[in-house]
Amino acid sequence: MTGAPDGLARSENRDDKGGRGPLALNGVTRRFGEFTAVDNVSFEVGPGELLALVGASGSGKTTTLRMAAGYEAPDSGTVTLGGKDITRVPPERRGFGMVFQHYALFPHMPVEDNVAFGLEARGVSKVDRLVKARAALASVGLEGAGGRPIQSLSGGEQQRVALARALVIEPQALLLDEPLSNLDPTLRHAMRDDLRAMLRRVGVPALFVTHDQEDAFAVADRIALLKKGKLLQVGTPEELYNAPLSREVAAFIGRGSIVPAIDKGSTATVTIGGVARDLNVTRPKGVAPHLETAFVVLRPDALELSRSAGVLAWRGRIANRRFAGGVIVYRVQLADGISVDVESLSGEAHEDDNVSISPLKGPFPLVPA
Amino acid sequence: MKAASRRQSWLIALPVMALLLWTVVYPNVAVIAGSFENGLGHWREFAASPADREALWTSLVISVASVFASLAIGVPLAFLLGRFEFPGRRLLRAVATLPAALPPLVGVIAFLFLYGESGLVTRVVQRALGMAEAPWRLKGVGAIVFVHAYTMYVYVFLFVSAGLERFDATLDEAASGLGANTWQRLRRVTLPLLMPAVAGSALLVFMNALGSFSAPYVFGGGLRVLSTQILASKINGAMGLAYVETTVLALSAVAGLVLFRWLDRKRRYTLASKGGRSRRTIRSRRIQILTTVASAVIVVALVLPHLMVILVSFARDGAWTTQVLPPEYTFENYRRLFTEAELWKPITNSVSMALIATAANLVVCFIAGYLIVLRKFGGRGLLELLVALPWAIPATAIALGLAATFNRNDLLSGRVLLVGTFWILPLAYFIRDIPLVASAVESSLRQMDASLEDAARGLGASWMMTLRRVVLPAARPGLVAGGLLAAVTAVGEFVASVVLYTHSNRPISMEILAQLRALAFGTAAAYSVLLIFLVLLMTLAARSFEERLA
User: Fold this and answer.
1) What's the complex ipTM?
2) What does the pLDDT read at residue B447?
3) Does the first or last residue of chain B, that is N or C, have fewer Cβ atoms within 10 Å of its Cβ?
4) Matching CATH topology for B1-18+331-550 and B40-313?
5) Is the CB of A169 less than 8 angstroms away from the CB of B178?
6) Chain A: nearest CA to B88, how far in angstroms?
7) Per-domain boundaries in chain A
8) Are the CB atoms for A115 and A161 separated by under 8 Å?
9) Searching chain B, which residue's CA lies closest to the CA of residue A164?
10) Could you tell me whether strands A354-359 and A364-368 are parallel, antiparallel, or unpaired per DSSP bridges?
């Protein structure tokens, strides 16, 4: 046993940048005793594609990532890479690049030994691995940092080292566990763009876990939303935002109030405080028309606030006023215990003012219960 | 304000520092000075003596061998119990630290009963193989290292287990994700990260083995080591030579300390306490059986000394000669301990001396810990050094220093006559246990938020009230744990006692030795069981005290 990986991890003669093709999870399930952490989850990440696994804590997203990496074995289902079953291949022979949430940098090694570790495990000569490690460090903007101890790095720098360490082995896929959650907000916004650019450059399937839907929207090509171990929806950020499959998806995406509605096919009627309005709706694919219970998502940018009392408008009182860059966001308390956020360019209204709210043209996302 | 608080710090610190300088530093200086009392004469005598050269060499060989033997047992055991799940794991974990509960001399006599020439295991093997003589003799370097490995591997085991528990499992996963196989991970990630634990425990074993007295004293059989040489020289009245030997022993300890610090110099990290690695179940049937059988053997080996001492404590004195097991059993040994005044005396001696020493430890170490952790003042470094110093000096050297210093009343040179009185032993116990109690108090206080003291003062509490209501409760866990350890070590203390005891203040350990010499094995064992019982009693008392307050 030299620890040299088999052909799976070796990739010197790779022509296409996509490595061995798409990474797919096919109906994987993982139970811990009575508790089902991941329940029959399937999705595929293509070469060069960035998929975000999103969910609250305990949703099973990290367990899913760990099954993709090989640290957990699924109780049922398979993991495939380019169509080849790798479910039983241990992590050390998968040749995946993994970035851990707290980076998991080896504290007893300087930066370049950390980065070169994967090459050392593959039996690459000392000279070659140092050259490659330095190049990888340069590619993440850390030229000349090779000799520094890990403890001297800032959080952002540690993250770049972890990324360089994952990239230097020319991985077949990249897996990232909450790559942005340990960074302060300013750095975090800058890193989103850098991370997306770097992952696209590598051109292998990239899967990253986050609990923050803003991170997911900013970085990912597609999003897989998990709740209590079940996959709720996979799609582009636009699809999740505009056509959520369920009330749960709409609630997780947030930015809007979910109010009950009467489903009329291409429209839906929303009644608040006795005032009924028909709204244009988009229906998720495959949902039967005229649902018994349906909801409509009222987004802040799809509503209009007026200080005059319109006859067909919903009336309410401003509970909270918040400046959000170019617009003012008002939280308005309506009748029936419903409150909505409304964006307005005008800052004239103030807290405790009585206002009326009218829906704009839409369409509004309609979701089943 | 600032200057006033600094002045106050010094005011509190000065009595403590003076006490430590007088009882810890001064005796050692006296020993070193004594070694030069006729210029280099005593040192030439030492250098020219083949016995002393042999003793120095043997001491070092025993210490190094004890380190390796302890590592060879402690590290694999820590890995086995920390990383794997197998039938019998809980039992093995429960008894793994048992040897630490044996007072040093008791461990030694238990080994004598088991593996000595007329010991149980020796006889069983002899009979089984039909040999005319004992298959081995419990003598010399091998026997001493054998006992040391049994009692001292616990340090290694505990340190490495704690290291494994704090080990960040994602580091191991990261390494395997990067393609490293099991062996590469062990060599490049796990072991390097455990090095601080390994080095720390190795140092502890080295210091203990170097200062060890009981095993060489009982099993030496003509073998010379520094600690026994010191006692021999003192008894022969060759005090100058004893001073040189003591200085050499203390210097060896300091050299060991410096060497280990140097080996561990490059470390700049600490292990994050995330842990969370689950134990792997051993699946292979054959390896499972092998582990279970091996752990059963280890469990028996670990428990046997305790059981043997208990068994022998019921044996009639003088009846056990050539039989495998003692032939006659009786409660007589215990009855005599509790009824004969001469036999009862050592028990009250040990208990009262241990309690006095521990009380002094609690007071002095609380003040020292408070000053070191919560007060910023110029003398902090010196105070830290003073409370840590006794740890670096072998007990025999401490005892000889006391014998050299407190041997007459001479106020001009700061000497008081304590040798030959009751008070010399509590003083020795007190000094030996200062580092133990101080470090426990310090670590408790370090967990306290330093701004709590400021908050209390800001709310109008006086300094005294702050100390009593805020600092003392924060130090309490350390005081209880440190005090317990101090009391437990003091009640079974042997090494300093053998140098300083008199007939009237003789502790239990000296009485055990005396009974052993008189071949009264049963009585010696009964004392040993009583000692174990006292240790147990103190542990329970400390625990219930802590629970009542917490």
Assistant:
1) 0.75
2) 85
3) N
4) yes
5) yes
6) 22
7) 23-241, 257-368
8) yes
9) B178
10) unpaired
Q: Number of C-alpha atoms within 13 angstroms, CB side, residue B381? A: 1
Considering only alpha carbons, which residue of chain A is nearest residue B182?
A3
- Long-range pairs, B133-137, Cβ under 8 A, ≥24: B137/B221
Q: Could you tell me the residue ranges of all domains in chain B?
A: 1-18+331-550, 40-313
Answer for the pair A208, A220: CB distance below 8 angstroms, yes or no.
yes
User: Do residues B514 and B317 touch, judged by C-beta distance below 8 A?
Assistant: no
Tokens of A196: 């997306």
Tell me how close the Cα of B179 comes to any Cα of chain A, in angstroms: 4
Query: Count of alpha carbons within 13 Å of A71, Cβ hemisphere only?
Result: 24
Q: What is the CATH number of domain B1-18+331-550?
A: 1.10.3720.10
Q: 């998991």: which residue's tokens?
A: A104
A31 in Cβ contact with A75 (< 8 Å): yes
Determine the residue type at B418: L
Does residue B275 register a pLDDT over 60?
A: no
Helix (H, G, I), strand (E, B) or coil at B260: helix
Give the residue among B258, B269, B261 at the shortest CA–CA distance from B163: B269
Tell me chain B's radius of gyration from C-alpha atoms. Answer: 25
Tell me the pLDDT tens digit for each residue of B485-508. 999 999 999 999 999 999 999 999
Q: Which CATH class is domain A257-368?
A: mainly beta
B188 contacts A95? CB cut-off 8 A: no
Contact A118 B178 (CB under 8 A): yes
pLDDT attached to residue B277 = 58
Q: Do A50 and A23 touch, CB atoms closer than 8 A?
A: no
**Residue B41, CA distances (Å) to B233, B240, B406 in order:** 15, 9, 24
Q: Name the amino acid, one letter, at B425.
A: L
Half-sphere exposure of A47 (CA within 13 A, CB side): 13
Q: Which of B175, B183, B272 sits opposite A1 (nearest CB)?
A: B183
**A94-98, A134-138, B372-376: which range is least confident on average?**
B372-376
What average pLDDT does range B520-545 have in this prediction?
Answer: 91
Q: Is the pLDDT at A16 greater than 50, yes or no? A: no
pLDDT band at B270, cuts 50/70/90?
A: low
Q: What is the CATH number of domain B40-313?
A: 1.10.3720.10
Spatial separation of the C-alpha atoms in residues A147 and B182, rounded to whole Å? 27
Neighbours of B383 (CB within 10 A): 21
Task: Determine, for residues A120 and B188 on separate chains, whether the beta-carbon distance falls below 8 Å.
Answer: yes
Contacts of B177 in chain A (CB under 8 A): 69-71, 91-92, 94, 96-98
Q: B77 CA to chain A: closest CA distance, Å?
A: 24
Task: Classify B102 in phi/psi space as left (phi over 0), alpha (psi -120 to 50) or beta.
Answer: beta
Q: Which of B173, B177, B269 sits opposite A107 (nearest CB)?
A: B269
pLDDT attached to residue A311: 75
- As a whole number of angstroms, the distance between CA A359 and CA A271 comes to 12
Helix locations, A243-336, DSSP H: 247-253
- In terms of Cβ atoms closer than 10 Å to its own Cβ (0-12, 13-18, 19+), residue B113 is buried
Q: Do B173 and A151 touch (CB under 8 A)?
A: no
CATH class of the structural domain A23-241: alpha beta
Roughly what angle, to the nearest 10 degrees, separates helices B41-48 and B239-263?
70
> Where would I find the H helices in chain A?
61-69, 111-121, 126-139, 155-167, 185-202, 213-219, 237-242, 247-253
Residue A4: pLDDT band with limits 50, 70, 90? very low
Residue whose token pair is 């709210």: A357
Whether A121 sits inside 8 A of B193 (CB atoms) is: no
CA distances from B234 to A234, A251, B58 (A): 85, 85, 20
Tell me which residue in A1, A9, A107 faces B181 most closely, judged by beta carbons.
Answer: A1
Question: Residue B277's closest chain A neighbor by CA?
Answer: A71
